[in-house]
Amino acid sequence: MEYRRFGNTGLKVSRLGFGCMTFDTLDQTLELLEKARSYGCNFFDGAEAYGNPRGNCEKLFGDAYEILRNRDPIKWRRSDLVITTKLYFGPSKDVKGVPFGYFGENELGSSFKHIQEGIDGALKRCKLDYFDVVYSHRFDDVTPVEEQVRAFTKLIRDGKAFYWGTSMW
C-alpha cells in the first residue's frame, strides 16, 4: 500500500481509505475491516450519521475494533491507524413512523452544543479515546462560522481529536 501525507500535516494515510458507511452486522464489519487492513489500509472514515439507525456503523466499528485489537494487537495498534468521524446529523432517535429517525432542535447542525455532545457520543460508540480527524459533515448556514470554528478547535484542545476539517461544504 502506498501512503501519503494527509493534507499539509505529517500524518500518513493509506492511499485508499475505508468508508465505514454500510456496516450491517458485526460479522460483516469484522470481515471488511480485516480485509482492508490486510491490504495495508490504515485510514478508516466514519460518521455519526452512518447506519440504520444512524450511529450504528460507529457502534459496529467500535465492537469490531475491540475484537480485532484483542486478536492482533500489533496489526491493530491505535498508533498506526487514522480513524475519522464526521459530525452534523446526530445519531437516530427512533420514532415509529418517522423515516431516518427524529431530530430534536439541537441534535442537527454544527452548534457548539451539538459538536461537543456529538464527539462524546461518537467516541463512546467507537470505543475510542480520540479521533485522528473530525470533520464538519455539512455546512451549517444557521450557526455562525465563528461558533463552528470555536467548537471544533475545542475538540482539539480537549484531546478528543488531533485535526479537524470540513466535508461537503
Average predicted confidence as pLDDT: 93
**Which of globular, elongated, flat, extended, rod-shaped describes the shape?**
globular
Cα separation of the termini: 29 Å
Order of helices and strands: EEEHEHEHEHE
Number of helices: 4
What's the alpha carbon Rg, rounded to whole Å?
A: 16 Å
The total of beta strands comes to 7
Structural class: alpha/beta
- Helical residues, percent: 25-40%
Poorly predicted ranges:
none
Largest sheet: 5 strands, parallel
Percentage of residues in DSSP E strands: 15-25%
Order of strands, main sheet, comes to: 3-4-5-6-7
Question: What does this protein look like?
Answer:
This protein has 169 residues and is an alpha/beta fold. The chain has helices spanning 26-38, 56-71, 112-126, 145-157; strands at 3-5, 12-14, 18-19, 43-45, 82-87, 131-136, 161-166. It has four helices and seven strands; from the N terminus they run βββαβαβαβαβ. The two termini are 29 Å apart. The model has no long low-confidence stretch (mean pLDDT 93).
